[in-house]
Request: fold
Amino acid sequence: MTQNYSKPAYPPEFRQQIVELVALGKYPEQLSKEFGCHYTSIQTWCRAAGVPIRSSQAIALAATPRVPFLSANERQELMELLKKLKRVEVERNILAKAPIDSMGERTFKLYILLFGLSS
Reply:
């Protein structure tokens, strides 16, 4: 005999509530973590209800400034610069947490070695 270990189906009211939250602009990834159901389940429910699904990646692209007068090359360069800016901000935040030595200066050598950051 084989046993079926699948989870019972979510109640229709629960599904409808999740779909309504997505329709109001909530991110499916966030709802997945908050309510404990899988992201693909939320996608399936939204597709069945005809609700467009917004992912965090789509939101990031939508948040990118769009200037109508930029050529494709200029847009690509802008995207690369925004990615570089984000990387530099992360590096700055990591280095800001570097310990202070006995002379009152931050010791970056260990952080540079650990995180592969260029000085």
Notes: The chain has two domains: 12-57, 72-115. The chain is about 60% helix and 0% strand. The longest helix spans residues 72-96. The CA atoms of residues 14 and 50 lie 17 Å apart.
